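Schema walk-through. Below, the input block comes first and the output block second. Nothing else is stored per chain. Lengths vary across the set, and this one has 239 residues.
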Amino acid sequence: MTRNVLALTQRELIMSFFSPVAYVVAAVFLMATGYLFMNATLIEGSEATIRPLLDSMSWVLIFAIPLLTMRVLSDEFASGTIEALMTAPVTDVEVVLGKFLGVLAFYASLLVTTLVHVGLLLRYGGNDVPAILYGYFGMILLGCLYVAVGVFASALTKHQLVAALIGMGVLSLFTLVVDSFAAWKGGLWRTVLSYVNITHHFQDFSKGIFDTKAIVFFISGTVFFLFLAVKMLESRRWR
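--- output ---
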């Protein structure tokens, strides 16, 4: 199983690096993070913390990651190559995991480029290294969940643009929408909405607050959406 997953991960990562859309997304992401760093973090007289940049990136990724994942399964369905995958000696779980890890590796490479900002922050007064490391650990977990949602969305349709819009819609639902509803709903509703709010949990990481509930939330959410993607892929075998 490990060998098949690694082979599929390598294949997906190579396809990501040869995808024009991935380079456009990467360019926009880098420009956005640079702008946000200069205008929200590296401000004279303000606290030298990475938190504003991490919080801003979490919003940018709502739209960036679905664009990276939209082709992972949709393109296989549209081109017909999914039939070759289904007849190959690999399971649906291995296919989904390979796609997931391939895009996640590309996302991690984008995240590495933002370490330049961390270096500048440390150079000009930031010294809370444990909080920075924990914040980036949160970015990895956030990326895992976002990529899992994107893979699930891509498993729903053969149209890449539709997959991207579904992924953005699901992520917006669990960030922007629930955040808006939680602002005016009270009691039990507010508690429930706060629990499913991705941004609410990520803020623990950006603030440097260690909370196992946030870690469990991201891991369980990632597993849940990958499970849904596997089930969607399995359903294609019976069509």
